Amino acid sequence: MRGDLLRAYFSRKTLVSLYNLFFTISRTLLTSFPLSVIMPKPNDAVAGSDSESVPLLDLSKPSTPISLPIKSLQDLKSRSYFDSFHFQFNRSTVPLRRDLPDHRPRVLVCHDMKGGYVDDKWVQGCENDAGFAIWHWYLMDVFVYFSHSLVTIPPPCWTNTAHRHGVKVLGTFITEWDEGKATCGEMLATKESAQMYAERLAELATSLGFDGWLINIENEIDKEQVPNLMEFVSHLTKVLHLSTPGSLVIWYDSVTVHGHLKWQDHLNEKNKPFFDLCDGILMNYTWKESYPKLSAEVAGDRKYDVYMGIDVFGRGSFGGGQWTVDTALDLLKRHNVSAAIFAPGWVYETAQPPNFHTAQNKWWSLVEKSWGIVQTYPQVLPFYSDFNQGFGYHVSLEGRQLSDAPWYNISCQSLQPLLEFKEDNTDIIQLTIEYICLQTYNGEHMNLFSTREASYNGGGNIVFKGRLEGDVYFTARLFKPLLHLSSSPITVSYSVKSDETSNLGLLLGFSSPSHETKSILVAPQEPTPRLDHMFLKCLVTSEQTVSEWTVYETSLVMDGHTLTEISAFCYRTENSTKTSEYVALLGHISIKEHAQLQQNLVSLPPASSWVIEAHSIELVPGDSGSKILRVKLEWRQKHLEDSVLPVYNVYAEKVKSTDVLRSRKVLDKPRSERVFLGVSHVPAYYVSELVVDSDVKGVSFVVQPCGEDGSWMKVDDSPNLLVDLEGLS
Hints:
Strand order of the largest sheet: 1-2-4-5-6-7-8-9
Keywords: Cytoplasm, Glycosidase, Hydrolase
Largest sheet: 8 strands, parallel, barrel
Radius of gyration: 27 Å
Domain Cytosolic endo-beta-N-acetylglucosaminidase TIM barrel: 118-394
Family: Belongs to the glycosyl hydrolase 85 family.
Distance between the termini: 51 Å
Number of strands: 34
Number of helices: 14
Enzyme class: hydrolase
Strand content: 25-35%
Domain Cytosolic endo-beta-N-acetylglucosaminidase C-terminal: 603-725
């Protein structure tokens, strides 16, 4: 597989000797993972060039939590990863939303972006809002995190957001070149050693919450050790299936059953024995036009487990990849086998014009046109989305801005809307994080985009901006749910920020038990009478204004119906003649059963039921007489040790009064010194560099629990811990 951009120009065979030399030298020089222990800034790459040396990271000591691979068999065997300070932070806490479909071909995406572990390695996030992200989860079934380290463990941000969208996540076990052959010689020395290393990999996946492994053996194997290699694959599959039901082990088409490194490009007698031992095979991406059909014939009733590789960089890939990737996808769809899209980060790495967000949406639209939507969500209630893409320029809560600093944390992605991308002419929708351009409807223009403006929740929103003349309206697809509804009422709410003449509603599409369709418009105002024949109307029953946002809410009973579509509906009320300009921001959408809405009031445990502890406290000198506080916070519910909520907001409030320290209580009223530190998806947070002035006597840390339905505990009611700084220095 691709190691770097050199492979865009040279074949594997040409690079073998270069790689052997490179890995020999690098292994001699590097003895551990060379990472800075501070959170990276957008200009780190430049600043780092002035540094004479970068300290090696001692993984047993507290530092900013990171994700990292395992680079040696000894570290894998010793289980030293579990003793790392960082292990606790790398656990994914979002359960997988659904199992892999067995009735259709699937789409696997292998991320391989700049060697892996870039901005995504910072578990608690970083400040590079221009980091690489994926938000087209509705177009894939499996996501593989890839690097050229021996054991590539997916950073939890990818597992969290992929699981939220129903996508399975695999790590990568890779051996390659001369070093890989030596590694395999040790690993496959005996049947027992092969089983032991397989068990270590299964333990990692189960403990960290991801769904399996891609096995990539890209080096020659001694013929007498091939049986042990097959035992390794077989045992890993069996053990992982027992510990993590629904897990996957996928074999990469590389070494053959004779131990030769010869990519076959299709399923045949030389690689099928490995395919028979696991859950699938990822075929190398240099296949010929006839190979998908041949592979399907060999696989028989397991043809969906054959993932034909497509290299987006286009290196020897059928159809050329890049902007003609749909050529290969169309062929695979025609022959009813699965697709493996390798390195979609090509759009980001090669800086495709006009900007990453527009190019990303355009490129993935090729996948959608060829393959169609493979994920439908929501499928269960409660449903909540604030359109957060996992990066942004601010963080808000209920319309109030908590932070105006840029940030990047893919774990924070909420369910992503299925916005359509169309280029040129009419009905054009594009989505980027900064500015989006043009949709035309009945001669009118509507822009749809997410901006730097403050959000209702998190760091995202959808902005509708354009012109609506007369009775013209505008619709945009948001979600494709598959929600089977009962006789219990559902409550629909959404937040809007707009001027008095721009109205925004939700158009809900339903299917009845007899497969009849109907549309219901949930809206704050009556639309024009000429639209009455198009859909039923349900006016909102309550409105609440919060920080310039209006939250609309209504209830519906749709017994036996299935909710199949959620769209935005932009319109003006009758007699709106002041201006044709239209501007409206959609901040969030929430759908809950009535019983769930009632439970909201008691679903988040009170502060008295929580225990917060501070560990590894350090107070070191800073600049201009200030000091820097470092501390690990951990929390739990007193009587529910394993209870973990999906999100926690963490704040710090600097205390200057000794009276507060004596009482061990935080002042009842909010203080101006309270600052938002970040978000955690595990019950722990490491404060790595909190600057405190010399007159600060203590710091109160507040942990705000948040529910999966978008609910949250009031900050002033949230559990807190007061850390006394006196006597620490």
